[in-house]
Write a structure and sequence with these properties.
Blueprint (H helix, E strand, L loop, with lengths): L1 H17 L4 E8 L11 E10 L4 E2 L6 E2 L4 H14 L9 H4 L15 H5 L22 H6 L2 H4 L16 H15 L3 H10 L21 H6 L6 E3 L5 E3 L10 H4 L2 E2 L1 H12 L6 H7 L4 E2 L6 E2 L4 E5 L2 E10 L2 E8 L4 E7 L6 H13 L3
Antiparallel strand pairs: 1-2, 1-13, 2-3, 4-7, 5-6, 8-9, 9-10, 10-11, 11-12, 12-13
Protein name: Beta-lactamase family protein
Organism: Hominibacterium faecale
Length: 360
């Protein structure tokens, strides 16, 4: 165990330096049912700075934008409502959201299953408008009724079972959650997912962290990690805007930390969050991602590493990268986050799993 901690410390420091990151936070845990050499491992480390302009050091508890890791929670919201028989995976989106339409007759074929597995054929979001965020309760519905959605063209019929990543599909799933529960999407996430798991440092309403402000200076004072990018001279600088817009809450806007994501991971490693029959469906391969061969489950990506199946999600938006993966066979989870666009967090996450798998 001590040797593994030393290895993780050494690798984390090398990763921060060689990948030229402003900040890097890592969480690695292996439960009591994990392999004997590493059973009970609980490693959390933050390196670098939360804000390159102030040089304030990054701490493990500081808040990151988790980008598309948010989709795991939206998937969970849909599946919880299915467990309560308020929805079915076979429910057609055109019947659940009769006011929403796409200019394509194949839209009527799309079910919740197709949207969760990115096989709906729906297009992707074109512009997140981080520079002009909408913060009102109607923002998500207004996006669903917008010309971007209405005028979009489907790429193929969902019957073809082709994978095409669609943030637009997840925004519509979020609206289904809101309308089915008679709550806002964010209220539902808080009451039925975040609070029951004790994820008290997590929210989908990022602007509330700084009294309604999304100004970088206000968010920094609230203790959040700041978004960074690199300029033409390859220098690390702040992004112009924090990546938040309530129109894209279900696909992209969870803000959290590695400590809270550890709670999310353990709820699934213990298979206590969903019913047994839901878990039997959750991590089945329904489609294959063309560029890397990963499988697609009900909102979760799946990959094979060594002899192990690993399930999770990546997140990337302006200024942030997140990589969250669990391995039930090892009773392990690894989260890696960085506060810069295009940070190599998936590569770091995979390397850490290699270290765990080949530990002697």
């Amino acid at each position: 165990m001590e040797n593994m901690i030393k290895q993780l410390d050494k690798y984390a420091e090398e990763a921060l330096f060689y990948h030229d990151l402003p900040g890097l936070a890592i969480s690695v845990e292996i439960g009591e049912n994990g392999p004997e050499p590493l059973k009970g491992l609980n490693y959390k480390r933050a390196l670098g700075v939360k804000d390159a302009t102030t040089r304030q050091p990054l701490l493990p508890e500081q808040i990151f934008h988790m980008a598309s890791v948010s989709k795991l929670f939206t998937s969970a919201g849909i599946l919880k409502l299915c467990e309560q028989e308020k929805l079915s995976l076979d429910s057609r989106i055109c019947r659940l959201l009769p006011d929403v339409c796409v200019d394509d007759e194949r839209y009527g074929e799309i079910t919740l299953f197709h949207m969760l597995t990115h096989t709906s054929g729906l297009a992707d979001v074109e512009d997140y408008h981080w520079d002009d965020p909408k913060l009102d309760d109607q923002a998500l519905k207004n996006y669903a009724l917008s010309e971007e959605v209405k005028g979009s063209r489907m790429l193929w019929s969902p019957k073809e079972n082709k994978f095409r990543y669609s943030n637009m599909a997840y925004e519509l799933l979020g609206l289904v959650i809101a309308q089915t529960s008679s709550m806002t999407y964010e209220e539902y996430m808080k009451k039925h997912i975040l609070e029951p798991l004790g994820m008290n440092d997590s929210t989908f309403l990022t602007f509330e962290r700084a009294g309604g402000s999304l100004a970088l200076s206000d968010l920094s004072q609230a203790g959040m990690a700041m978004p960074h990018t690199k300029n033409q001279e390859k220098q690390i600088v702040l992004e112009k805007h924090y990546p938040y817009n309530r129109q894209h809450g279900p696909s992209s806007t969870l803000t959290s930390n590695i400590c809270d994501l550890a709670k999310w991971a353990k709820a699934h490693l213990s298979k206590q969050f969903f019913k047994k029959e839901t878990y039997e469906k959750l991590w089945k391969r329904y489609a294959t991602v063309p560029n890397n061969g990963e499988g697609m489950g009900l909102g979760w990506f799946m990959r094979r590493q060594g002899e192990y199946d690993i399930y999770g999600h990546e997140g990337t938006d302006d200024g942030f990268r997140a990589s969250f993966w669990i391995c039930p066979a090892l009773c392990a989870h690894v989260t890696v986050v960085s506060n810069i666009s295009r940070g190599a967090v998936k590569k770091i996450n995979k390397k850490i799993y290699d270290m765990l798998i080949h530990c002697e």
